[in-house]
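Note to self: keep these together.
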Amino acid sequence: MKKLLFLSLAIASICMVSCKKDRICECTVSSTTFKTTFNDATKRQAKDACVSQTYDNGNGTSTKVECKLK
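Structure:
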């Protein structure tokens, strides 16, 4: 019984640990695409940093930047 409980706790703790690796954020502005790499980031950290934004062009118009985590 104790072995089963220990094994269950070990498996649960392994599943809860996030894997850190290099993640790529791909953004598109008009027809131009650019990529940003986040090194040793969890999926949540990279997703929070890779967000779609709107930029003011300075002449009263704005441009939407679409970003996706790859």
